[in-house]
């Protein structure tokens, strides 16, 4: 079954100074399961990597390799997620205090009935409260 993977999982997997071992099994399952992401995902990943280079958390060469490795994964962008930003995503923001970015992942998982992988505590709590399956990452 396809999964929704948020940026926190990708960053933990790719940043040299984070414990990627926690998320390695999830990322390794993407070729087999597939991955669906909201329309803002590429911009969020690009911004996180740009900031990591600027803050010397990784080199530009490492970033380029990480971005290339992501292009090798079967990651599908949900084209309807941008339409939900002004409706369902806003309602999730109001109800849970999530950012629109994080609520976008939750909305996507809810709409498609998919499991969600995240390291974000607030997102995990909001997902658990709505009975969304969390992959190997339990809410605090």
TrEMBL record:
Gene3D superfamilies: 5'-nuclease. InterPro entries: PIN-like_dom_sf (IPR029060), PIN_dom (IPR002716), PIN_Pae0151-like (IPR044153), TypeII_TA_RNase_PINc/VapC (IPR051619). Residues 3-127 form the PIN domain. Keywords: Magnesium. The keyword Nucleus does not apply. This is PIN domain-containing protein.
């Amino acid at each position: 079954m396809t999964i929704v993977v948020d940026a926190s999982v990708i960053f933990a997997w790719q940043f040299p100074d984070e414990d990627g071992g926690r998320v390695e099994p999830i990322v390794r399952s993407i070729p087999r399961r597939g991955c669906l992401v909201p329309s803002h995902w590429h911009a969020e990943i690009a911004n996180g990597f740009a900031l990591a280079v600027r803050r010397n958390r990784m080199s530009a060469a490492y970033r380029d390799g990480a971005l290339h490795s992501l292009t090798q994964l079967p990651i599908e962008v949900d084209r309807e997620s941008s339409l939900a930003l002004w409706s369902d995503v806003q309602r999730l923001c109001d109800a849970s205090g999530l950012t629109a970015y994080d609520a976008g992942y939750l909305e996507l998982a809810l709409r498609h009935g998919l499991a969600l992988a995240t390291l974000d505590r607030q997102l995990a709590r909001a997902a658990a409260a709505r009975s969304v399956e969390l992959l190997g990452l339990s809410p605090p």
